[in-house]
Design goal:
alpha/beta, 10 helices, globular
Amino acid sequence: MSDTLGDIFERLVITKEMIDKETGESLPDDFKIKTTESYFEQLKKYYAGEKDSGYSLPFAKADGHFAVRLGELSCFTGVSGHGKSMMLSQICLYLMNYTKVLIASMEMKPVLTLSRMITQSLGDPNPTERYMKEFCDKYNDKLYVYDQQGVTDSKDMFAVLQYGKEILGIDVFVIDSLMKMGDISEDNYDAQKMFIDKLAAYCRDLNIHVFLVCHTRKMSDEYTQPDATNILGSSHIRNLSDNILLCFRRREIEDLRFQGNLPPEREKDPTAYLVIQKQRNYTFEGTFALWFDEKSLTYKERPL
């Protein structure tokens, strides 16, 4: 061993900066190795409210199984073209009943992001000018859009998170997508690890929830459902995320219906799945059957 006893104590003593960063309060002891008694007050707070905290999803069947908890990072994944961003839009629309949301979609013009949300809110793709104005007025202090198309870089994105939380009071953020971070290449796994690790730390430190859209690798065909191991990029994306959610459209059902070849006994088969593939802080993992409605661009909980 090369470290002296003094070196060891130096490593294990919590400095004032560490205390301020973690809790803002001075603890009974300033040592990193603690007894269970040191956590009693935190345990009381956890069981009194934090344990079952979080915002629900717009699907009643998910209640009690998944919540949008502050301080967590969710990887939202799926095959390209299977409606990840569309489902997230519906989720955000629901969350705005309870909190503020910021959408950073570098893959879509802001006006198209809002147009889709208006369709989902109205249930029809043809809103009147009056309804558009009512929508903008209703969500004026609830919905914020990061107006950056193409690519951005991770430094700007972290600045958005900090400004959004500390100045605007936003709790939920959508980053769409990881591929649009211009300073993180698709094959730079170390940079991806550093970004995800820092993003998870920002979620905890700012007490926010971030949905990070991540694409999957190309599957053998449109009908093959991916899982977390198929997320494009470093394995640290799934390892460091608190939650992994997968949106999957059942193209086989949609194609058969379009061709007029769907058997009558399959008419009520679900056309989409929302799969909870990982929850670090909750035990449930499973699949919710949904039905996609093309007119309203929303996912329903029952056959159409």
